[in-house]
Write a structure and sequence with these properties.
Number of domains: 2
CATH superfamily of the largest domain: START domain
Largest sheet: 6 strands, antiparallel
CATH topology of the largest domain: Alpha-D-Glucose-1,6-Bisphosphate, Chain A, domain 4
Number of strands: 6
Radius of gyration: 19 Å
Order of helices and strands: HHEHHEEEEEHH
Length: 215
């Protein structure tokens, strides 16, 4: 290897080392708590008890200029083979998740019930808790993953949508967990930010509501 090649590899190694060292100090909290207030991050949500020993807990949020009953229909129809997750479908579909994000309310997917199950890639998504207009909790046991959506009305037609994820990583070594954390956390932010903004955009729009929903 040439001297130039050695310098490039050394520089790349140094850059990666600095990134790994600075990540927990400067970047991690921003990735885990995008859009959320300190109170939202510290709050106890129904569904937390389903995975109390989670290695990773994230809390993200977005303000939506629409009442909870306009946000709720977009949440209950989400899923693989259903209305998608309003994020980057092409990335989800690389993992065989069959996501096709809908831009309208789909009546066939509105009757969600506790105990319902749906295929989700290599796993099965379970509906663990459901409070219409307030709370939706899902779990994929095979992935050791719990996801919580909490709708908080704030008056004047404004809703805070809080999204919490809880994950347990397989494996026991510190290096393995650190690697998985950095990858999933870094990848999770753009996907979930796109999803939250996608829900916000749809709930705030006036031209996506079918006549049967308008009454």
């Amino acid at each position: 290897m040439t001297i130039r090649g050695v310098r490039i590899l050394s520089g790349a190694g140094l850059a990666l080392g600095l990134l790994a060292a600075s990540y927990p100090l400067f970047w991690r909290d921003r990735l885990l708590t995008w859009g959320a207030t300190p109170d939202e991050v510290a709050s106890n949500l129904r569904g937390d008890e389903l995975l109390p020993e989670a290695h990773l807990v994230t809390t993200k949020a977005v303000a939506i200029h629409a009442a909870p009953d306009r946000v709720w229909p977009w949440l209950v129809q989400m899923g693989s083979g259903r209305a998608g997750t309003y994020t980057y479908d092409w990335i989800d579909n690389l993992f065989g998740l069959d996501m096709h994000s809908a831009k309208v309310i789909l009546p066939q997917f509105q009757d969600l019930q506790i105990g319902d199950t749906f295929p989700f890639g290599s796993g099965t998504l379970h509906i663990e808790a459901l409070e219409p207009g307030r709370l939706l909790v899902t779990r994929v046991p095979e992935w050791n993953w719990v996801r919580i959506f909490r709708l908080i009305p704030e008056g004047d037609g404004l809703t805070r949508l809080v999204l919490r994820n809880r994950l347990v990583y397989p494996g026991t070594s510190f290096a393995f967990r650190l690697c998985r954390q950095m990858i999933s956390e870094a990848a999770g932010l753009p996907m979930e930010r796109k999803m939250l903004r996608g829900i916000k955009q749809r709930a705030e729009a006036d031209d996506v509501w079918p006549d049967w929903w308008r009454g």
